[in-house]
Design brief:
This is Knr4/Smi1-like domain-containing protein. InterPro entries: Knr4/Smi1-like_dom, Knr4/Smi1-like_sf. The protein is about 50% helix and about 5% strand. Strand 1 and strand 2 form a beta hairpin. About 5% of the residues have low confidence.
Length: about 500
């Protein structure tokens, strides 16, 4: 679940998210801890991030990945930020006042004819108070004002923070307390806690004084435990690299992995009701097509299907004109695809495994060639790599879901060799810091250079209209990730 002091998951951090994403999320949690007067704990997390980023990306320190409201934390606590965390500035009144004005200007939707911070007037306060009241009265019926996402919630977050800023600069402390009480009731709301870090006088008045922590009622021990969890997980991830989902299930039979996926999914029967899922006795599914007032939306008894016969698998191979990988044939011999399965961290249902009859050979130079086969999908590189376009066909295993489609193709031969040669060339031309980055990424994505160089085929997952998502050495690796994501 997203929200204040939430949204940092060990599974995502250790196995799924990029180092960049882990660092960004961890830095947000550090600032949220600082808002609750856990400055020492926040600093320890930020120091780890700054150190590990500078060790890995010597030419690109961790600047602008953490809210610059962090300067006000360091100012209030009488500390200095670690080198490489944010752009260095002189901690004098002029610079800090200028920074607050810059941050306030980044808050969207606030009326442009008002002055925020130094120079605010009673008239500004009155106008913005009316503006906030109008937002609450006009949009309150939508039910989204305090949501973790959405425009309405962001609109109110902006208004309340702007109002707090003016109140504090006018020394209207009683009004400011009331505004903060309203903010406390919606700290999970979209952008609320982030914008709160931009208000310089609020750090001493409400955050470093312990006012906000006492108002929330969270215990000191709980905060320390959460801080240790974020710090230790971040340190492990940034120092040791991303763990591979395939390592979690190494040596486990496919049947056990499918049983695990079945158990994990059926923990959430209401997800099927929300999806509009209808099951039939003949092992078929008709999702969202029940129709009529008497339709019964219910969870299946199992996500597994009747296994595909050897003859049926052979028919598909003849139609495709090629053999299926052995681990994929083993999968279909256990279950002919699956019904919808659960996927986290934000729980939903997905269709990762269509029936064997739905496999097809896909080869379309008109649109597939607009995508590239990236062997390090999602990685942040110090120098860009021109990966080869997908100019050949492959086995396609996915169900179309419009713009949410996650294409999954099985490639081998010339295209894969081109991608490997492209990466080797980029490595040979890189300076030593760049080589270290690529060494770490190859270990993270492929286990080792030797494993990558020996790779003869792969499954490649591509987002609709976007960048590459994942590269898998075999079908088992793909199944491992799907099962891992069902643990949330």
């Amino acid at each position: 679940m997203a929200g204040f002091l939430r949204g940092f998951y060990s599974l995502s951090a250790l196995y799924i998210d990029s180092d960049h994403d882990v660092a960004v999320i961890a830095s947000r949690k550090a600032l949220e801890l600082a808002l609750l007067n856990k400055v020492h704990e926040a600093c320890s997390i930020l120091e780890i991030i700054a150190h590990e980023r500078s060790e890995t990306y010597h030419d690109r320190p961790f600047i602008r990945l953490v809210s610059e409201g962090v300067y006000f934390m360091y100012e209030g606590a009488g500390l200095s930020p670690p080198a490489g965390l944010v752009a260095e500035i002189v901690f004098d009144e002029e610079n800090l006042e200028s920074l607050e004005q810059e941050l306030l200007q980044r808050i969207p939707y606030l009326p442009e004819d008002l002055t925020f911070g130094k120079g605010s007037t009673e008239e500004d306060f009155g106008k913005l108070k009316t503006w906030v009241q109008n937002v609450e009265s006009e949009r309150g019926s939508n039910g989204g004002l305090d949501a973790t996402t959405g425009h309405d919630a962001m609109l109110l977050s902006s208004g309340l923070v702007g109002l707090l800023c003016i109140a504090l600069h006018l020394n209207k402390f009683s009004e400011a307390d009331g505004i903060m009480t309203r903010i406390v009731s919606r700290l999970d709301a979209n952008k609320q806690s982030e914008y709160l870090t931009y208000i310089r006088p609020a750090w001493k008045q409400y955050f470093l004084s312990g006012w906000l922590r006492d108002k929330i009622g969270v215990s000191d021990d709980e905060l320390k435990q959460y801080a240790e969890f974020v710090r230790d997980t971040t340190k492990q991830r940034l120092q040791d690299g991303r763990l591979r989902a395939s390592d979690v299930f190494k040596g486990r039979p496919l049947v056990e992995m499918l049983e695990e996926l079945d158990r994990n999914t059926l923990r959430f029967p209401k997800l099927y009701e929300e999806y509009g899922y209808v099951t039939d006795d003949d092992d078929e599914q008709t999702e969202g097509q029940a129709g009529g007032q008497n339709a019964i939306f219910t969870a299946p008894k199992t996500i597994l299907r009747t296994p595909a016969t050897t003859a049926r698998i052979k028919e598909v191979e003849l139609r495709l004109g090629c053999s299926l990988p052995e681990d994929l044939k083993e999968f279909y011999a256990l279950t002919n695809g699956t019904r919808l399965v659960v996927s986290g961290p934000y729980l939903g249902l997905e269709r990762p495994f269509p029936k064997v009859e739905l496999l097809l050979w896909e080869e379309s130079p008109d649109w597939m060639s607009s995508y590239q086969l990236e062997l390090l999908p999602g990685a942040r590189l110090s120098a860009s790599i021109e990966w080869p376009n997908i100019d050949c066909g492959g086995i396609a295993m996915y169900e179309n879901d419009g713009q949410g489609t996650k294409y999954l193709w099985y490639f081998q031969g010339e295209l894969l060799e081109k991608a490997k040669s492209t990466l080797e060339k980029a490595y040979s031309e890189a300076a030593e810091p760049g080589k270290r980055v690529l060494d770490n990424l190859v270990k993270e994505y492929h286990g080792s250079w030797a494993q990558l160089r020996n790779l003869q085929s792969c499954w490649y997952q591509q987002g609709w209209g976007g960048p590459g998502l994942n590269v898998f050495h075999n079908f088992r690796d793909y199944l491992s990730l799907v099962v891992l994501e069902s643990y949330f």
